[in-house]
Amino acid sequence: MTARIIDGKAIAQEVRAEWKIRADALKARGITPGLAVIIVGEDPASKVYVANKVKACAELGLHSEHIALPADTSEAALLAKIAELNADPKIHGLLVQLPVPKHIDGDKVLNAISPDKDVDGFHPINVGALATGNMRFAPCTPYGSLVLLQKSGVSIEGKHAVVVGRSNIVGKPMALLLLQHNATVTICTSKTVDLAKYTRDADILVVATGRPKMITGDMIKLGAAVIDVGINRMADGKLCGDVDFESAKEVAGWITPVPGGVGPMTITMLVANTVQSAERSAGI
Ligand SMILES: Nc1nc2c(c(=O)[nH]1)N[C@@H](CN(C=O)c1ccc(C(=O)N[C@@H](CCC(=O)O)C(=O)O)cc1)CN2
After folding, report:
1. Which residues have C-beta within 8 Å of that of residue 29, sequence separation ≥ 6?
2. Which of 1, 7, 73, 89 is nearest to 38 (CA)?
3. What is the C-alpha to C-alpha distance for residues 218 and 78, in angstroms, rounded to an integer?
4. Domains of the chain, with CATH numbers?
5. Alpha carbon distance, N-terminus to C-terminus of the chain
6. Any idea what DSSP says for residue 161?
7. Strand order of the sheet with strand 254-255?
8. 91 a known binding residue?
9. How far is Cα 167 from Cα 171, in angstroms, rounded to an integer?
10. Binding site annotation covers 167?
11. Complex ipTM
12. Which residues of 23-143 form beta strands (DSSP E)?
């Protein structure tokens, strides 16, 4: 079997077009959805992601503010900036690009963002809402992964979904989203004994471990849908995922490439969450 390649770039364009219609409808009522993105420091990858977020907003005609703060910004100054943007009516979505420098407490920062503007879905109130099935903002990477499955025609209900990785940003919310769509969900970690026993039983396998090519074809069930969330830069400068694409594509039914799979959906779902936040604030 050779897997169908899930084209994240193409699906991201399709989804953006759908959300542009909703953004245009808001603008016709005099409301322009607005996103503020704060970045602290000079991390090169983070700078690219933030620039792409601002670009995506421009593509959909959204208002955006890019706040670049120096690496030595104090925690208090960052919290003051967040408080200012929490109170700004032009801003419907607000995020701080992660990671933040070591001298800043990341949890304090995430807790300071208004849950009503938390388009990353990282605030404990929004995490709790997702866990109790009352989703307000789903974290963008797992939300994008879910939409990739849906748009690719992969059925989720009743299927065994295995998520490898338990981060707050990807693994845990991914498991909750799949559970909400009536999958039977198993969460594995790097400590799982006989990991392949679980991955080989997965109809849907989502991998977010940060370990390059750790899932190989022999660990995958024939015909499974494989979502690779990993982005690892190798010594030769090339990117690869947490799944060994070459061996996996011979066994899987569907697979996301890296780059060009989940990554483009992350920013698309951020824009979607921002438009949805603006709709909510307008009572729609
Ligand atoms: N506040 C947040 N910080 C971070 C998040 C997040 O969702 N919110 N996620 C990641 C970074 N990220 C978005 O912020 C992100 C990562 C990767 C991509 C992407 O499009 N990847 C491309 C490859 C890009 C490359 O060449 O490096 C792909 O996979 O095709 C988009 C967004 C951590 N921080």
Report:
1. 282
2. 73
3. 47
4. 30-114 (3.40.50.10860), 139-263 (3.40.50.720)
5. 46
6. E
7. 4-5, 254-255, 225-228, 204-207, 160-164, 184-188
8. no
9. 5
10. yes
11. 0.96
12. 34-40, 63-69, 93-96
CB 175 within 8 A of CB 130: no
Ligand 1 neighbours by CB, cut-off 6 Å: 45, 49, 95-98, 120, 140-141, 231, 239, 258-260, 263-264, 266-267
For 233, the 3-state DSSP assignment is strand
Neighbours of 46 (CB within 10 A): 16
φ, ψ (nearest 5 deg) of residue 252: -70, 160
Name beta bridge partners: 174: none
Q: Is 247 annotated as a binding residue?
A: no
Q: What is the pTM of this model?
A: 0.97
Q: Counting atoms of ligand 1 from 1, which one is nearest the CA of 45?
A: 27
Is residue 53 part of the annotated active site? The answer reads: yes
The DSSP element (H or E) to which 26 belongs, if any, is: helix 8-28
Question: Whose CA is closest to atom 25 on ligand 1?
Answer: 259
DSSP 217: G
233-281 pLDDT per residue, tens: 999 999 999 999 999 999 999 999 999 999 999 999 999 999 999 999 9
Ligand 1 centre to CA of 2 (Å) is: 28
**Closest atom, ligand 1, to C-alpha of 96:** 1
